[in-house]
Specification:
Blueprint: E1 2-9, E2 19-26, H1 33-41, H2 62-66, E3 71-77, H3 81-98, E4 105-111, H4 123-133, E5 136-139, H5 148-160, H6 163-167, H7 171-183, E6 192-194
Parallel strand pairs: 2-3, 3-4, 4-5
Antiparallel strand pairs: 1-2, 1-6
């Protein structure tokens, strides 16, 4: 059910990052959370089996999973209405209950739009739910890569616009950033990369 990723702004390895963000991908099993992430970070499209993080028996980790998240991508499968319904009835409530960053940026993603002939949730319904949840909305396809990069890029750019989210990184990350800034001048512009 759950999946997560840490992302960084400004290219290179961990030692060259200006920012480190905790980004979660949440939603029912089988909606394509891991596929979206793998498609984003690689040049290949993969058919993935459900991941360990997708198994319900790991529910006891829920509160620590949400703690300190800078961004959350809520994913549903446009061909399975129950995955859409569960976002408002289950997942959005978990975000509200466990998320410790009140200004956390959220994006609602309808995945698997390449299977449009099997669609069970309209784009208009997705936009209406996004408005209700006060978050951005995109439809994506991990298989065709449609809007996958746009989803992550939009999320990171919105995180960068919220000063409190930049301040809420881990102590280790803050120390690393401060040490780097003492050694070199701040960059003129930020570019984003994910690891």
């Amino acid at each position: 059910m759950l999946g997560s990723s840490s992302s960084s702004s400004k290219g290179g390895g961990n030692n060259n990052c200006d920012y480190s963000f905790k980004i979660l991908l949440i939603g029912d099993s089988g909606v394509g959370k891991s596929s979206l992430l793998v498609t984003f970070i690689s040049n290949f499209v993969h058919d993935l089996s459900p991941t360990i993080a997708g198994q319900e028996r790991f529910g006891t980790l829920t509160s620590s999973y949400y703690r300190g998240a800078h961004g959350i991508i809520l994913v549903y499968d446009v061909t399975r209405r129950e995955t859409f319904t569960n976002l408002s009835e289950v997942w959005a409530k978990e975000v509200e209950l466990y998320s410790t960053n009140q200004e956390c940026i959220k994006v609602l993603v309808g995945n698997k739009v390449d299977r449009d002939s099997e669609r069970a949730v309209t784009q208009e319904e997705g936009m209406a739910l996004a408005q209700q949840l006060k978050c951005s909305f995109l439809e994506c396809s991990a298989r065709t890569r449609a809007n996958v990069h746009q989803c992550f890029k939009d999320l990171v750019l919105k995180i960068l616009e919220v000063p409190t989210l930049l301040e809420k990184g881990s102590t280790a990350v803050k120390k690393q950033i401060l040490q780097q800034k003492q050694v070199r001048k701040p960059p003129e512009s930020n570019t984003c990369c994910f690891q």
